[in-house]
Structures are given as structure tokens and as C-alpha cells.
Amino acid sequence: MDLGLRDKNVLITGATAGIGRRIANLFADEGANVAICSRTPESVTRAVKEISLMADGRIVGKACNIKNKEEYEAWIEEMAEELGGVDIFIPNVSAGGGNDSEKNWWRNFEYDILGTVRGVEAVLPHMEARGGGAITMLSSTAAVETFAEPQPYNAMKAALINYAKNLSQTHGPKNIRVNSVAPGPIFFDGGAWDMIKTSNPKFFEITERTHALGRLGTPEEVANCIVFLSSPAASWVSGVNLVVDGGYTKRVQL
Amino acid sequence: MKVRRQQTIQRTDKPVPGGTPVVKAPNPKLGNKLIPADRYTSEAYMRLEWEKMWSKVWLLGCREEDIPEVGDHFVTEIGRESILLVRQKDGSVKAFYNVCLHRGNKLVHSQEKPVEATVAGTFKCRYHDWEYGQDGRFVDIPDLETFPQGAPKCGGLIERPCDVWGSFVWFSLNPDVEPLQDYLGVIPEHLDPYHFERMVLTKTLTVEWDCNWKASVDAFNESYHVQGTHPQLLYYLDDLDIQIDCYDKHNRYLIAFGVLSPRVLAPGEIPPPIKVVMKGAGMDPADYEGSVHDIRHDVQKHKRANGPAQGKDYSDLNDDQLTDDYHYMIFPNITMNVHADDMMMFRQRPHPDDPNKMYFDYYFYELPDHEFDPETYRRPVHKNYKNGEISLGLVINQDAYNLPFVQAGMNSSAFEGLWIGDQELRIRHFHDTIEAYIKGKANKPQKRTATKAKSPAKKRS
């Protein structure tokens, strides 16, 4: 199956490590032009160089703290200009979990919610100009089931599913599809579950066994779903939240 | 994935005048021989330790504040001996064998807890009312006329050297022991800047562990076991770039806290144990925008700036001491995790007659902040437990879990001795010091040879 991604222009926020990086790798591998960012210029330069090795298309990037509205919007405009438009947008940056103070609510609101909303607002005109596009948001199984503790991460990730669904209705007529992906626990070196595996191996093993497939997911497995949903191959899919969790959650999704 | 990042701990270049010395001491050349396992298991070696070491050194008894007023006293035990520590009229403290000279009854039936002076201010044996003063001298022997030989010629309780340092009361069973300050060597210079006298005891208990007392000391004197025993601490401290310093009898190591181990990759979020460090300093991890690698220095800066407002005086401590663990061993049996805000101290005592058992005394002292109210503070009541009866917190529980298995293994005929590496230099230094006592100036080395010869024989059987 050809995903139809050759020459498509993709913007991904925070794509120098973790799941975001695997998403960028896969888009590049599929022949898309990819723009990335992260907070530090060195990591952007390194990631652009590394991703370029596997790319047919153009790989560009620039440091950007998406928390700053103007800096973020400028990054989108600059990347759109470099690539010559925007077809696909993946707002991937998250403030992560944590419940240390009220400040966590602000952080998750700024990074997870506004980091998505401001990006969407900025890319929509570019997509309209090209006659359509696809936005795929990063939610979490922590949005659809209780997880860990009452914390802003869970609540904000749930809000994104709602936001994506509403966007899909409003912008469907302009041929813009909007979906979300809700990954379960994902293991990669240097990730949160790497830390848990080291510091609390018992809990890690219990979590592995909780998965119907008996292990944690890989970032590549999440990237596969995001890239598919964002590609023309998924042209008839809009407004869904795709749970990608190897059978970690137990609810029946109707 | 096996990780070993390149990481060098940046240690302070701003020593505090009169503060804890930070310069690395040259490593003693102690070779790389096996440390014979039977030092941990043999009754003969245990007796040797008692005769040549325990009865010769200075030992920690209680806290000065345990016995503030004249006649206040505290009973502590070491081996088969019970020692009575009594506050004197001149403010000094005296140490006596806690035994009535009449028929050998223990004079004060108490253990490890502060006792206020009696109404009469004397100590009366419960058996026949022999009575002693606070200075240990006889006050009354009922029906003295029925003892044709008179009163014991010593005139009262048998006294031993006693002195104070660092808010603690120390005693020795050796009447000819060197002065405490000479014995402690560099320790007061190193630890006085922490002002232990300002700290309050918030936890005290004793657990009987099924291991030799040295196995416990060893468990706290090296960081090599962090990866195996305390993997969660890899997200809390650097277990590889450690400064080890050996000084005469005592030793220390300096471990950076609030950092990642080189054995793990930096996660995308602040590890929970490091958040605890930040919160302890009054910082909000959710408000922290810097790199995880900068947290240790930022916590130091924050504490330096905000300590006084919290009622904490860090002025005699260097920046590293505001985050790091300065871990000291005061020979032979005190190991202390010394921090700016608290001090976790372990006293390891041998069992009276079983080399496979010991008493683990746990004390936690905290530096009060401005919210501390001395009026409502109550000293915690000391309790005794067997292993497994009480949690000592995750980290010490993990050590406590290991030790009975370590002891059992050391009793195996297949185990000749401890295979010690550079990261465990303090263990070698500790044994070297014990051996120096055992060989002693006046002592004959043949017992040592006998111990050595026993090992291969045991192996063949």
C-alpha cells in the first residue's frame, strides 16, 4: 500500500527524541518533506542531519519553545515557507505527567492544549490554500481510562480528543481531516518507562502483563498509526481517536 | 540497554573558611587481597575483636540533650556490657559499668532511653538497696556492719573514660584510652560545621539483624551496590563519580545528590526522587524550566538564598553540602549520612555472643526550621524490633533484605572471602583498621595466623 506521502509537507513539534522523533523518521522514510523543532538548536541540528540520511524529501528544523505564542507562530510560518506549504500537522509536544502544584495545570494547558490549538489555528489557512490537509493529535490512554492519579496530563489529553472531534466536523468541508491517537505505555531508552523499569521493576512487569500483548509498545508502533492516519491512505478517516495500546486498556470502545 | 554516560560531578571551588575540608585525601595502599570471610562468622575472631578492639576504642553512648540535668542518665549496651552514663554537677558526664558491686544486678533497668534524675538523685539497686551517688560513689550499703570485709574497696561503681563531642556522649571501656579528640582525629574539624547540636532527634529504633555487625557497616560504605540493590537511586545520585577519603581510623565519601547516575539516560521529565530534593528546598518542580542536569546546582543556589528565611543557617557549609551526602564512618561502628538539613546515623553493635547477629541502631536527626516549636517537641521513644517487623524506608529495607543472605553465604564453605574492588576502598580501610587493633602494639600475631590457616581446611571439608 502506498501511503501517498511523497512530497507532502509535514510539521511536527518537538521531534528530536521519543515518539515525535520516530514520527519524523517515518514521514521522512515515506518521502515526505518534514519540519521539526525542539527547544535547543543543537538537538534540532543533530536530528535534522540524522533524519536527512533516510530522507528523499527536504528535512528542515529550527529551535522553538512552543510555549511562546509568537515564537511558535513564527516557526510555523517559517517552516511553511521553507517547505512551500503545509499538508500535515502533528502537535506532539507535551508537558508530561506530574502533580507537584497548580503550576502543573498551567504547564499542561500551555504545552498540550495551547501547543495544539495555536498550531492548528496557524496551519489551517495553509491547508485550506492547498485544498485540504490532515491533523493528528497526541492524546493518551490516560485520557480514556483512569491512570496513576488525578493529574492535569490526563485531563488535558482528554480535552484534545474532544477538540479533535469538533475540528473534524468544522473543517471536514474544507477537506481537512482531524484525528487523535491515544498511545498506552510506550517504552524507549531514556523515556519515562525506561526510568520506571529501572527504579520500580515490579510495577514495570505488572504493567507489561496488563497488556493483552504482554509487553509495552514501541515508539515506532505509535508512529506507524500516526503516519497512516495523517496520510492520504486514511482519506476516509476523520474524527476518530485511535487507541494504540496493545490491549492495555480494558474498556469496550463502541 | 546498558548505559554509561560520561559525567563528571562539579564539586565546589568555594570552600567555606573553617568549613568541612573538601580536598581529596591520598588513597592508602591497601593491596587487593581477599578479606577472609571468617572475620564475619567465627566466634574466635569475634572474641578477638572484643578483646583488642571494642574494649579499646571510643564508643558512642547517647546524646548530650538526653541527659540535660544533673543526675539524668542513660543506659546503653555494647557486647555483654551495660553502661550507665550520668550527668554530673560540674556539667560533665561520667560513664560507669551499670552493675551493682554487691551481687552483680544491673543497677539501672533501662535501655536506650533518657531517664531523669531520681528524686533522691541517687541510684539504688532493686535487689538489696545498695545505693550509689551520681558520681558513682557508695551512698548507702544497708547493714554494712554485717560485712566483716567492709565495703568494696573501689568505693563505688567502676568508672570508665567519658567525654562529649558533636552533641554526643562517648565512652570507652579502656581506662587508658587516648583523649576523645585524639581518637576522633579529623572528625570534629569535618563535622562541626553541620552543628549537630542544632538538630533534633525525630526517629530512633533498634533492629536485630541476622548478620555480623561488619556486614552492616560494609553495606553503607560503598556505592557499588546502588545499581543492584537500590536501582531507584540511579535517578537520584551519581554512584560512580564519588570522592573517597580515608583518614587514619575513619573514612568518608562524598556523593552528589539531586543528579542522575551515569548508568541511566536523562528522562524527559524530572525523576520523582529529584523532585523530592527540590520540594525539600522549597522549589516547585512544575515551575522548573532548566535541564535535569542543572537541578543540583540550582537547588544549592536556592537553599543558599532561602535558607535564612526558613530559619536554617547554612553559613558554615559549602554549596555541595546543601545537596550532597557527606557520608562518614567514625570507627568502629558509626556510619552517618550527613546532610545540611538532616543526619541519618547508624550505630552497628555486635551481638553479645553470636557473630551472625547484630544490633542496628537507627537515628534520624533533623535541622529544625522556623516552624519548629521546642515546647511541643517530644523525643521519640526508642523501640526494639526483629528484622522485618518494621519498615526503615525503601532504601534501608533493600539493604536489610540483603544482609541475612549475605551472612548465610559468608558461612558457606565455598566462600573464602570478600573480593573487594576500588569502589569499596572504605571496606578495605575499615578492615585494615580493625586488623591494626587486633595485631596491636603489644599483641602477638599467632592468633591471626591461626585464623588464616583455618580457611583452607574449612574448604577441603
Overall residue-averaged pLDDT value of chain B: 94
SS summary, helix count of chain A = 8
Radius of gyration of chain A: 17 Å
The share of residues in helices of chain B is 10-25%
| Rg over C-alpha atoms of chain B, rounded to the nearest angstrom | 24 Å
By DSSP, the count of extended strands of chain A is: 7
Low-confidence stretches of chain A: none
Main beta sheet strand tally, sense and closure of chain A = 7 strands, parallel
Strand content of chain A: 5-15%
Major pleated sheet of chain B = 8 strands, mixed
Kindly report the average pLDDT value of chain A: 97
Largest interface: A-B, 20 and 21 residues
Parts with pLDDT < 50 across at least 5 consecutive residues of chain B: 442-461
The succession of helices and strands of chain A, N to C, reads EHEHEHEHEHEHHHE
Topology, element by element:
The complex is a heterodimer of chains A (254) and B (461).
Chain A: E1 9-12, H1 18-29, E2 33-36, H2 41-52, E3 59-61, H3 69-83, E4 88-90, H4 103-129, E5 133-138, H5 152-171, E6 176-183, H6 192-199, H7 201-210, H8 219-230, E7 241-244
Parallel strand pairs in A: 1-2, 1-4, 2-3, 4-5, 5-6, 6-7
Helix pairs in contact in A: 1-8, 3-4, 4-5, 6-7
Chain B: E1 35-36, H1 38-41, H2 43-54, E2 58-63, E3 73-78, E4 81-87, E5 93-97, E6 114-115, E7 123-124, E8 131-132, E9 138-140, E10 159-160, E11 162-165, E12 168-172, H3 180-184, H4 187-191, E13 200-209, H5 213-220, H6 226-229, E14 243-247, E15 250-255, H7 272-280, H8 295-306, E16 325-330, E17 334-338, E18 342-350, E19 358-366, E20 383-386, H9 394-410, E21 417-418, H10 425-439, H11 446-460
Helix pairs in contact in B: 2-10
